[in-house]
Amino acid sequence: MYRPQFNSRSVAAAALGATLLGGCADDAPNCRHRVCDINDPSCAEFVAEVIACQRDVPLVLPDVRFSTAAEIIAERDPPTQEELDFARDYWAGEALVGLMPPNYDPANEASDSISGVLAQYRPSTEEIVIVSDSNIDDPDVAYRVLVHEMIHAQQDSEYDLSGLFDEYATTFSRSLGLRAAVEGEASLFTTFAQLELEDLSEDEVDWEGYFRSWKSDMWQRARETEVPSLDVGGLFPYAFGADQVYRAWTAGGLAEVRDYVQHPPDSVRQVMAGYARRPPEVFNLDTELNPRAVPVLPGHTYLSGGAQDSWLLNTMLQRVAGSQSEWWSEVEKIEADHLSVWRDDESGDRVVVWRLLGDTESVRNVLTGPGSQWVEAAEDATTHHIRLVEGDWVLVATETPNAVAVADSITEWQSRDQALERSGLVRAPDPRGLVLLQRAP
Q1: How far apart are CA 260 and CA 155, in angstroms?
Q2: CA 249, CA 205: separation in Å to the nearest integer?
Q3: Contact, 91 vs 106, CB < 8 A?
């Protein structure tokens, strides 16, 4: 999937020469990028040939079609009223911790999810879909869009993207780690292409400054977006993934990049820990947390939930806990998390319980800092309460000031599967996570 992140000159001035790629023969007819009209079918064939030549692999030429955003949305089955009601309840719960706006209309979810997307590659149909009404007026930008998606097609041929997602994207947290690797490679090699187009070399690169600026922009957008839960997949993987893929590239070239994608990081936390701390040094401990991730709440129906990972936890700290930092390094100490959303059977009010596994004392200090809504004192009637339970911090958020009473009622824990079985609801356990997994990487 391609989203615009930067203008032409700023990218080119901070990129590595594509001529460093292996397998690019000087006398090959189509082994260097040059801008062509993406509306011309021969342009797609040309881009595919350049990528195949530079990566020294067989040609992969997917179908390329153009569709409006409305046409892409219309391809999906429209939600039923029951699904809309469920989504409205679920997003209202996430709104309590700043991850969605209050009173969010789930009928807007499809359009909000595709907002800003210029194109996508679909592994299921092996086709590239260009969003024709996304106002790609600059031919250079349009060309980079096609390059980015064509690299995804090449990845699919080399790695089997669907197989990678089946193997590694078993939770939302793990899907973000994989998407960082997949989108990072496509983003970095698109940047290589642009450098080639503008005849710039590695000597002109300030890599640290480039990635620092790009990531800072993504953090700022996370602070400003109204729908963090929907936008995380468009804000995190590209800049942060490209940074790590670049480090793989400098460590061992294309072979190291391929290894990184095929053995991806398992979480935002692992990406943020740095390339040198790949598995097995930093693991996501969600499998350890899962059997005790969800509370048993008498008088409440479990709606949904799942791991949010450190990106959305950081976003929550900015929106609810008074954090003024772009990134709180303390969130990297949280080894697993699970947010569950509930509905009070009597009042219909929504309740959120967010359990955090790991060394979270520093996060506790942030949660109770200036401007924070979170209250630790048990005697206070409040809508936002934190307490230490069995060594883990548990955050409880409620629509009415009874968060302490809800926390007091938690006496046992269960897995998400057990919670779904007890609720009697037959539906996807994490609507946000499933939407992102179904979107083309």
Answers
A1: 12
A2: 15
A3: yes
* pLDDT mean over 2-14: 40
- In angstroms, how far is CA 169 from the centroid of its own chain? 11
Residues 44 and 182 in one domain: yes
Count of C-beta atoms within a 10 Å radius of residue 212: 13
Burial of 401 (0-12, 13-18, 19+ CB in 10 A): middle
Last residue of a domain, one of 246, 277, 308: 277
Compute the distance between CA of residue 429 and CA of residue 437 in angstroms, rounded to an integer: 13
Structure tokens at 330: 């303390």
DSSP 389: E
Lowest mean pLDDT: which of 10-19, 45-54, 207-216? 10-19
Same domain, 316 and 370: yes
Looking at the 3D structure of the chain, how many domains does it have? 2
Euclidean distance between CA atoms 203 and 359, whole angstroms: 42
Please check whether residues 68 and 210 belong to one and the same domain.
Answer: yes
Judge if 249 and 297 occupy the same domain: no
- pLDDT digits 0-9 by tens, 333-386: 899 999 999 999 999 999 999 999 987 787 888 888 888 889 988 777 899 999
Return d(Cα 341, Cα 343) in angstroms, integer: 7
C-alpha dist (Å) from residue 209 to 50, 216, 250? 29, 10, 17
Could you read off the pLDDT of 118-158 as tens digits, one per residue?
A: 999 999 999 999 999 988 889 999 999 999 999 999 999 99
